[in-house]
Design a protein that fits this description.
Phage tail protein beta-alpha-beta fold, 3 domains, 7-stranded mixed β-sheet, Jelly Rolls, 7-stranded antiparallel β-sheet, alpha+beta, about 30% helix, about 325 residues, about 30% strand, globular
Amino acid sequence: MMCIMGMDRKIIQRWLNGELSPGEEAAWLRAMETATEEDIAALFPEEEWEHTTPMLVDARRQRRSLSAIHAATGAAEAPWWKRNVVKAACVAGLLVLGGYLISQPRLSRMVAEAKDRKTIVTADGVKKMITLSDGTRISLNGGSEVDIPETFTADVREVRLVKGEIFLDVEQDEQRPFIVTSGKVKIQVLGTSFNVRGYSEEQRTVVSVKTGKVSVHARQGGREIVLTPGVQVTFDDRKVAFSQAVLKETGMIGGWKNNELAYENEQLKDVFRDLAYNYGLRFEVRDSSVLNKHVNAIFIKRSQEDIIRILGKMADFKYKVNNKDIIIY
């Protein structure tokens, strides 16, 4: 039996944990693509996994692994994970090594969904609304990216906010919970409308509920928080902790879709960032002390010029406007 480079358990464990560099992962996947059934059988003896109790694998690991496999192998002859013996032994063995086991039907659904996923991206200042296969509507704010399937599987509906802000009006389906992942947070609902904000530079995920009820918890475990209308929870990536607040302007949740913005004791640095996403504005702040000032304001379908003028009066700063470029001094 030939020796295949990279086919050892330490490498596979690092792959399952997402610890391989892009080069290492590509090399390992190429090795696995050319592996024979005898190679796999030697690496994962049948007696090690045949009596293992099935467990769920988290969706992020499923998507990442399957996407990497598809990218590396393309659509040529039947790859290693489709070979009957390997599907029953190698793939199961791989996931047992990481402490998990998935069934063959579940794997088939994962493969089908991984092939059909797509990414929707919006630039700063550009908003977009999409309708999913189940009728759920998602509005994307500027500077956002969301990963969605073409169609949902029979047992779960899941989307991933890669970055940015989305408002969801989820179609009710008691048989299939709707799951949103954003950064280190997982949100689960049956049917409701809520907002998720997770811009990477803010290092936090903010969930606000407009109607219905959602549950939120850290993806690495921990307590579950149930949110009702008007309640907002923030997960701080740096502190790895949740904080909770009750919003005064519940009707404004997701209002950015219609250029309706509400700020409750917000620092101007956060307001300026929000305006950059919503209107595509570029701020040059020459007086940094302005950024720490707080404002309370509601803007209903105001022009960007009006918003800057009002903020200037509220926070006592001067400014110049040149199209999308705003100089604060």
